[in-house]
Amino acid sequence: MRPRPTPSATDAVQLTMQGPVAVIRLCRPGKRNALSDGLILAIRDTFQNLPAEARAAVIHGEGEHFCAGLDLSELQERDAGEGVHHSRMWHNALDQVQHGAVPVIAALHGAVVGGGLELASACHIRVADETTFFALPEGTRGIFVGGGGAVRIPKLIGAARMTDMMLTGRVYDAVDGERIGLAQYLVPKGTALDKALELAQRIASNAPLTNYALMHALPRIAEQPADHGFFTEALMASIAQAAPEAKERVRAFLEGKAAKVQKG
Questions:
Q1: Of 66, 59, 151, whose CA–CA distance to 104 is shortest?
Q2: Within its chain, how far is the Cα of 206 from the centroid?
Q3: From edge to edge, which strands make up the β-sheet containing 111-113?
Q4: Which residues contact 248 (CB under 8 A, 6 or more apart)?
Q5: For residue 143, which phi and psi values (nearest 5 degrees)?
Q6: What tens digit of pLDDT does each residue of 211-262 get?
């Protein structure tokens, strides 16, 4: 039997719908939205069971912080085997975010630290407001990332920068975090959620198959040898353009009924 979140952990993740956008809120402000095992399992179940009408999702944190990382008050002693299974449980949960049904935008503010950065890195777009700061303190605490950060974060900022963060405890503020790739958008204090919702509404209007290709095919193509990547791209392009909705959108553009790309 797979582990289930406790009722209190389930209450700490709230889902509401804004049209086609699923809005997922972490609701442990007194703990700076620190990630317990129960909360991780609740995130897993939330993304596994999104409403059928959801076409995009936004995840954000209640209170002053997005997520301050692992809840160290629940840290348990584990032998090596138990540690592997625990890490793999986190991998499975965050895989539901990255490789789930819809694109996910993270609205970041305050602490995006440790496991919080691992969660943010599993999202497809990250919007940081000016209060955001990023850190990986595991190295200075004698532990190692275990929620997928060793795979996902170097793809955003490179292995050298992640090594520096873990070896030295370096903290990046919002401006430098956006500059190195930890976020794609930098917005004024208190506006990350509004920007994330704006982006999610725009993404939700895309053809679902195109969104699926960008979530699932593009990352795999990036890791394939060039000749394999070109072939996978050709297959995905042919499948996407054959969809009835894609044909309707191209026809509308050719007939002058679709908006053209505008600068800014």
A1: 59
A2: 19
A3: 111-113, 133-135, 172-173
A4: none
A5: -125, -175
A6: 999 999 999 999 999 999 999 999 999 988 887 776 676 665 565 665 665 6
Quick: pLDDT tens for 38-71: 999 999 999 999 999 999 999 999 999 999 998 8
Per-state percent for the chain, helix, strand, coil, to nearest 5: 50, 15, 30
Q: 98 pLDDT exceeds 90?
A: yes
Q: Which positions are annotated as active-site residues?
A: 118, 138
Map out the domains of the chain as residue ranges.
7-204, 208-254
Which CATH number is associated with domain 7-204?
3.90.226.10
Output the six-digit token pair for 52: 């059928």
Burial code (b: 16+ CB inside 10 Å, e: under 16) for 13-52 equals bebeeeebbbbbbbbbeebbbbbbbbbbbbbbbbbeebee
Q: What does pTM read for this prediction?
A: 0.90
Domain at 208-254: CATH architecture: Orthogonal Bundle (1.10)
Tokens of 135: 């850190």
Question: What's the confidence (pLDDT) of residue 140?
Answer: 85
Q: How far is CA 109 from the centre of its chain?
A: 14
pLDDT at 134 over 60: yes
CA distances from 82 to 76, 79, 119, 203 (A): 10, 5, 22, 39
